[in-house]
Design a protein that fits this description.
131 residues; alpha+beta; five-stranded mixed β-sheet; globular
Amino acid sequence: PLAGPAARAQPRAALPEPVPAPGVVALPGGGWRLLFAREEERPSPEQRLTLMEIGNILAAYTQGRVTLWAEVALGEDVSEARRLSLRRALAVREALVLGGLPETRVDLRPLGRTEARQDVVDILPPGAARP
């Protein structure tokens, strides 16, 4: 059996698609991207329902850790940008957990403001690559 990075690079079965919501898109390498409005800290109610469904899918169809990569577009204050990205990641994790994904399986990566300057949280199941 493979272990380490080589095992993570192996192809995996496609996951079921959740009911679509505005601002939630499938990523080409697997996983989903949640789009945020500039100052928004929490997902919309429609996004939250979709995140709960994603949490249910991840709990039922995957093993291993799920990673949330959170970025923000604005903010000259590095500390505030990092805090906003953390608040967003925590809100996404909360919805995934309400859907059935164990909290202990979720890793948070609050990046703050990046060169890409986008307001997103990427939800990456085990084995998925970040675009």
